[in-house]
């Protein structure tokens, strides 16, 4: 698999505005809402999916969220969505590859039924599509050399130890590091995830700051490193959960609600959630808090 561009897809920093801007097309949303409930006779979307035996899902080929390996669709979102749709009586996911910025426009155009890409829930996107309740949160972690020689566990300990921390260019982690009081001279910018791992192994930085999800995935191919326990950073006194979910067309509220009922059963069962998703770097720390609601996230 290629470098996983989880960082370019992180709508929490730079993609959300672009996606929002792409979608303000007069008449498009109203046209979609008239047609996406199902057949012209008023058949519900879920009933239609059950009859045809499959649901069309879009993915952006970004590991570990949704990607194709050989002929098999893998990742957090397809694995979770396959489980949910089977419980709803729809046995098959039919995948469509999309560029990241084309995911919501393609959904609106009726090219597929659900976006299965681990998309961040942002107010800009909520204005143009329906999100499930959060499937995961993205707490932060630190990649360090094997044995964690500086004994860091979070940003406060990183500041206290006076270590040099690496962050991705354009990613939100730089603001987390600065917000924790780490001096700018101790924050190094890197272009790709593998650059961060290489800098840790080469001693150019002491720790690489990124989501625990991404770092666990990266550590699979960098055995001389280890990843700290994930933690939820704060910025301006607010916890930064960075949650993501499934995306549906506006007008498909019933389908979204049915999906949410099955999703709740999984996120409420810690062992089931971890068993389903641990191969993709998701653990108990990624389970969204019960109090974290999409309606609130959409308000900003």
UniProtKB/TrEMBL annotation:
Keywords: Signal. Residues 54-284 form the Solute-binding protein family 3/N-terminal domain. The keyword Transferase does not apply. It comes from the Bacteria. SUPFAM superfamilies: Periplasmic binding protein-like II. Signal peptide: none annotated. This is Ectoine/hydroxyectoine ABC transporter substrate-binding protein EhuB. It comes from [Kitasatospora] papulosa. The lineage of its organism: Bacteria, Bacillati, Actinomycetota, Actinomycetes, Kitasatosporales.
